[in-house]
Amino acid sequence: MKRFYKEAAVSGDGAAFKVTLDGRPVRTPARRDLTFPTHALAETSAGEWNAQGDKLDMAAMPMTALCYAAIDRIGADPAQFAAEAARFAETDMLCYRAPGPDTLAERQTALWDPILSWLETRHGAALLLAEGIMPIVQPQKALDAVRAAFDALDPFRLTAAHSAARISGSAGIALALTAGEISPSAAADAAEIDEAYQLEKWGEDEAARALLDQRRADLDEIGRFLDLLK
User: If DSSP codes are grouped into helix, strand and coil, which group holds residue 104?
Assistant: First the structure.
């Protein structure tokens, strides 16, 4: 799509802000009003619109795209997306520990145990640990607590948490990142322990490294989105 406006600006105050294009409010792809809960998020979206060239490129507008998702997808059916994110707790990567070597097991303990401890303390979700890859059945009480934690999020933070769970493969990482308990960098470190160890052991692989770099970049964007919601 060709650029059809000259300038993007922010309007509104209080709890709802809008981006306008030449004075006209932006609408989502589903034709809903594109409103922002914070001025900082609206300003960033306006900056993305102003940075566009002759043709619009949504890939270069990550904050706006996340807002679209929060309003059109997550906000339209938050229960569905909370359930999807919570389902990662059933097979959460944080719970499956390597039997060896010691170096890998120690890294998992150092990075994963604090997240699981926080999950239990903050949300009452005590997930069980297993050694190896044989599946374990998590306590229903813990799974219900994880689901309640996702249900409690507003559509914008649920958008971040749902994306983080999908990217990391962990409900624990997603909730900790969304709550500000861990940074995007720490979330990426926790999510890539196994892959990073394999690269160290067997040597660099261009395709594998690209996947890790993309995961880290995606989690950085989610972290930025969450910062703008403060």
Answer: helix
